[in-house]
Amino acid sequence: MTTNERVFSPVNSSPCCRPIRARLDFSALRHNFSVARGYAKDTKLWAVIKADAYGHGQFAAARALDGLTDGYALLESEVAVSLREQGLRQPILLLEGFFAPEEIARIVQYDLTTVIHSKNQLEMLAAARSRPAHVYLKIDTGMNRLGFEQQETGAVLQQLEQLGIRQITLMTHFADADTGAGFAAQLDSARQLAGRANLPWSLANSAALMKRPESLGGWARPGIMLYGGSPFGLTPGRTAAELGLRPVMTLESRLVALRTVKAGERVGYGGTWQATADTPVGIVACGYADGYPRHAPTGAPIAVAGALSRTLGRVSMDMIACDLRDVPNAMIGSPVTLWGSGEGGAVDADALAEAAGTISYTLFCALAGRVPRVYENL
Questions:
Q1: How big is the chain by its Cα radius of gyration, in Å?
Q2: SS3 206
Q3: Any catalytic annotation for residue 44?
Q4: Does position 10 have pLDDT exceeding 50, yes or no?
Q5: In this structure, how many other beta carbons lie within 10 angstroms of the beta carbon of residue 62?
């Protein structure tokens, strides 16, 4: 699909007249995957497409990376089965394993790789009539979320072997590969466990893949970097642009109204921004019901008609006000970029996320269902 084709809302079959839309450029996804590949050396890559590919569409992302990635990592076995039925043959990893006993037969039938992280899962596996050929044994090395305790590793391995499972990969998850605090201890624990058991390992996420080559094992699991976000946020030298990453998702709209706010007047709910001089203000067809962060304050970056500007006042359900003092050519219908790179200009999703006190992951994942998607370069 190209931008010349009509845009349709996902909620009905009528053309969408409201100007907001999300453009998803899958050539950027492939480019970002090639960046990940450049860091991987001899390590294979799971393309992490969980959470609907971070809001980008699991099936579209899987299709775009078919033939490039070594495998896919996601959560739901139902999605994995659908990918298999659509012809994808690469390995598929279920990052949280199975949630119910009936999933195990599906995992075996469709040749899926499952994580095992709890005694409850072990019990379900022991009771199953058939068992998967390959499992990822998740060990907790400091995240304190999912995973067996380190001292349980030997006993769990013995149980898995008794169940006839011979292909076992050790897995853990770094709590702070981006900052480094605690990273060395987690890495040392995981590598010692893998070495003692003579197991391959999968440790590296996006941050570790790019910054911690000592964590590379048999497989790495890049996620946010595939979608053009930096795992390091706006850290100097490690922004998305500086890392060579391109935005896959661009959220864009247009100005639907122009106002001149007089000195002393206020804008938006609660009047949190007050003009100190007569100020041209634009109203954008986008709000928190579209997935834009409501808590983004005055000053959040926004691009209008090719110029970088800022938001004014509180974000409304369907509208955002923006400062037009540096956009003299603005008019009703002028293009606006909320994040990504579009006709309105470029806004780093990490910069908007930082202004809103969050991370770019949440922007992508929160994109509302009412926003039409345009898929490019699939």
A1: 23
A2: helix
A3: no
A4: no
A5: 22
Residue 180: predicted pLDDT: 76
Using alpha carbons, select from 291, 305, 300, 340 the residue that is nearest to residue 321: 300
Question: Rounded to whole angstroms, how far apart are CA atoms 240 and 376?
Answer: 21
Q: Is 87 left (phi over 0), alpha (psi -120 to 50) or beta?
A: left
**Counting every residue, how long is the chain?**
378
Catalytic residue among 110, 227, 269, 288: 269
> What confidence tier does 16 reach under pLDDT thresholds 50, 70, 90?
low
The tokens 């203000």 sit on which residue?
A: 281
Report d(CA 82, CA 111) in Å as an integer: 13
| Known catalytic membership, residue 50 | yes
Q: Which of 39, 41, 50, 227 is catalytic?
A: 50
In single-letter form, the type of residue at position 169 comes to T
**Phi and psi at residue 145, to the nearest 5°:** -130, -80
Residue type, 324: L
* The CA-based dihedral angle spanning residues 250, 256, 262, 265, taken in that order and rounded to the nearest 10 degrees: -70
What 3-state DSSP class applies to 230? coil
Residue with tokens 């490690």: 238
- Predicted pLDDT of residue 11: 46
**From CA 308, how far away is CA 375, in angstroms rounded?**
25
Q: What are phi and psi of 203, to 5 degrees?
A: -120, -40
Q: Is residue 40 over pLDDT 50?
A: yes
pLDDT of residue 8: 39
Reported as a single tens digit per residue, the pLDDT across 188-235 is 999 999 999 999 999 999 999 999 999 999 999 999 999 999 999 999
43 alpha-carbon distance from chain centroid: 21
Bridge partners (DSSP) of residue 346 are 341
**Alpha carbon 270 to its chain's center:** 33
